[in-house]
Specification:
704 residues; alpha/beta; abc type-2 transporter like fold; five-stranded mixed β-sheet; two-stranded antiparallel sheet; 20 helices; 9 strands; 70% helix; disordered C terminus; ABC2_TM; Phage_infect_YhgE_N; transmembrane helix
Length: 704
């Protein structure tokens, strides 16, 4: 009886060893090449521009220098403009859902206090900004390997934005400091004007003092002549007693006048002492203030260099000119001028008050002489003629003395006027110094003040702390100080359940001696196939149960055990039916190798090891054709409690693979069984008892 073409095609099997070797090589060599390419030559970094990434901006912003800033917006803008990264800004819930589904390789989250931490650099509580990078190893356990070179670039991109904010804040503080110094320079100019007037008044005071000294000299000369006349008068006192008595009266009057002169000089000395005390007090107040202000010179000098390095030469020159008036290295600085003023007033007070001063000493000697003259006038009673002649010369001397005292009075008047001008200049100096202090205080207040240098320096050196999190980590560090020691975590369940699960099911399909039962047990092909399928399904279910228990030990827990149970049942059933089909179709050896090859292909394309967007295009095409891809979709959603359309579609695909593979196995087995029976009838062959096993390459007759 002639068999149909379809029956002959379904009944075809490689009969010779060479044909089987060729089939094996055609299957194994492409898989070996693909595996070699994926593990040694494929660079997934080239696919990063096509890998979806998500960024979540929860930053609420913060006040900084009277301006509201949202630094997180700048960071997000920088990430979105990065050409080699496919970032998408999303709300937090959408980003988490996408990460759960595996739509995004990782999610970058900018927290609410990002701006607040960023602008806290020079506050009392500087805090480093934080950014959260969250992964999901269910989207590909090698995902972190791919991103290991990407994260440093991402960190550098975000850190550059923060560093720019720090630089802007620092330069703004420098500008404010420059304005304060400019106003301080204006105050210093007013001090300089007041000092000029003070210098003029001091010059006039010196001129008056010189005239006073000249008058005192003339007075001294007249006193000498008076002394000579008094001597001659003394020799003639005995000649004219009456004249001697009048001369005695005049001598005592002269003594009183000299005492009055001394009293006036004492009052003048008191005024000079008060001026000196006022100047000493004023300079004692101003000089420490100005010397304290001189401390700014060393602080501002680096700023001048910084401004010049930035090309701000005019501003640097203005600051340098302003601080030169208080620069201790400048001989003509304000402090030195005040020291000279203090020395001048001290010298004036000394000349008018110290008994050792030439002027006071001369006055005292004059008083002594007049007293001697008064005492000697009594001796002149006998020398009236000589007394009259001497009193004439005495009259000339007293006239010169009167002229000298007039000039002395004029000099003291000029000294008073100069003192008044000096007081006015000092008052202006006080006003200017007060304004200088006020402006310097304003400049200091506007300048950046770093309260905690160490913490702020740490924040500037490492502006951002990148925290990492993983929804389903496969491994975690046991000790953060030792990155070589890791522990296996619950995320490894996807490898145990799917990779190891399908691998063991493929190996068992190649090693089990029977995959379709015995021919004598059924009149049709469906019975042996279904019984064998049930046996393999039971074994697979046992394997999956063991792997499930191992995953639970690692900490894995599904959202709903009933939903996960359905996934596990369909994984075991689809694996049993699919690998049974390959065994029936190609025989034990070739079918077993084919099962291993299909598993190896699934390892690359199902998305649990290499993230789907990072694998080559041809393998991405195979993703939707492999049952392991749908097993992964169903497993992830049952674990996370996400029962969307893809979950139910994946269950339907696994069910369809199971049913279609079982139907194909029944059809192929039945066709081959009928073909074997026909061959036995036509060729009159005898089948040994060993050929009753129809599992390997079924119904190969042995002719007796």
């Amino acid at each position: 009886m002639e068999r149909s073409r379809a029956a002959r095609i379904l009944d075809w099997r490689p009969a010779s060893a060479l044909a089987r070797i060729v089939i094996v090589l055609c299957l194994v060599i492409p898989l070996l090449l693909a595996a070699t390419f994926m593990w040694s030559m494929w660079d997934p970094a080239k696919t990063l521009p096509n890998v979806p990434l998500a960024v979540v901006n929860e930053d609420k912003g913060a006040e900084n220098g009277g301006e509201f800033q949202v630094v997180g917006d700048q960071v997000v803008q920088g990430l979105l403009e990065t050409e080699y990264l496919d970032f998408e800004e999303l709300p937090a819930d959408e980003a988490q859902l996408g990460l759960t589904k595996g739509d995004y390789l990782f999610v970058v989250t900018i927290p609410e206090d990002f701006s607040e931490r960023t602008v806290s650099l020079i506050t009392d509580n500087p805090r480093q900004s934080e950014v959260l990078v969250e992964y999901n190893d269910y989207g590909g356990t090698n995902g972190k390997i791919i991103t290991s070179s990407l994260i440093p670039q991402l960190q550098a991109e975000i850190s550059s934005t923060i560093s720019e904010t720090y630089a802007t804040e620092t330069l703004t503080g420098l500008n404010s400091l420059g304005d304060g110094i400019k106003r301080a320079a204006d105050g210093a100019g007013q001090i300089d004007d007041g000092l000029g007037r003070l210098q003029d008044g001091t010059g006039q005071a010196v001129d008056g003092i010189n005239q006073l000294d000249s008058g005192a000299t003339d007075l001294n000369e007249g006193a000498v002549q008076l002394d000579a006349g008094a001597s001659e008068l003394n020799s003639g006192a005995g000649e004219l007693n009456d004249g001697a008595r009048r001369l005695e009266d005049g001598a005592y009057q002269l003594s009183d006048g000299l005492i009055t002169l001394k009293d006036g000089t004492t009052q003048l000395g008191d005024g000079a002492a008060q001026i000196d005390a006022g100047v000493q007090e004023l300079t004692g107040t101003l000089i420490p203030i100005l010397e304290q202000a001189q401390g700014i010179v060393t602080q501002v000098t680096p700023v001048i260099g910084t401004l010049r390095s930035l090309g701000l030469n005019d501003q640097a020159a203005q600051i340098e000119s302003a601080i030169s008036r208080i620069d201790p290295a400048n001989p003509a600085n304000i402090v030195n001028d005040l020291n000279r003023l203090r020395a001048g007033t001290a010298e004036l007070s000394y000349n008018l008050n110290s008994p050792d001063a030439p002027y006071i000493s001369g006055v005292n000697q004059l008083i002594d002489g007049s007293q001697q003259l008064a005492s000697g006038s009594t001796e002149l009673l006998d020398g009236t003629d000589r007394l009259l002649e001497g009193t004439g010369r005495l009259k000339d001397g007293t006239t010169q003395l009167a002229d000298g005292t007039v000039r002395l009075k004029d000099g003291t008047t000029q000294l008073t006027d100069g003192g008044t001008q000096l007081a006015d200049g000092v008052q202006q100096l006080k006003d200017g110094s007060g304004e200088l202090k006020s402006k310097l205080d304003e400049g200091a207040a506007q300048a950046p003040v770093v309260s905690y240098v160490d913490r702020s320096a740490q924040q500037m050196a490492v502006p951002i702390i990148f925290e990492e999190a993983n929804m389903h980590p496969t491994q975690e560090l046991v000790d953060p100080a030792n990155p070589t020691v890791k522990s296996i975590e619950s995320g490894f369940s996807i490898i145990i359940m799917l990779v190891f699960g399908y691998l063991v099911m493929a190996i068992l399909s190649a090693l089990l001696p029977h995959v379709v039962g015995r021919r004598s047990e059924s009149r049709t092909g469906a019975g042996p196939v279904l019984r064998a399928l049930a046996m393999i399904f039971g074994i697979n279910l046992l394997v999956m149960g063991i792997f499930t228990a191992l995953s639970v030990v690692l900490g894995w827990r599904p959202d709903n055990w009933l939903s996960m149970g359905a996934v596990i049942l369909l994984i075991a059933a689809s694996g049993a039916a699919m690998f049974q089909l390959f065994r029936i179709l190609f025989g034990r050896l070739v079918g077993g190798l084919f099962s291993i090859g299909v598993f190896a292909l699934g390892l690359f394309v199902f998305g649990g090891v290499w993230p789907l967007p990072t694998i080559p295009g041809p393998l991405q095409f195979m993703h939707n054709l492999h049952p392991m891809s749908y097993a992964r979709y169903a497993f992830i959603r049952a674990t996370d409690g996400l029962y969307d359309g893809r979950y139910w579609a994946s269950l339907l695909v696994l069910l369809a693979v199971t049913v279609l593979a079982a139907i194909a196995s029944i059809i192929i087995y039945n066709v081959r069984r009928q073909g074997a029976a026909q061959a036995l009838e036509e060729d009159k062959v005898v089948v040994t008892t060993t050929d009753r096993r129809v599992g390997e390459e079924p119904l190969n007759p042995v002719i007796r």
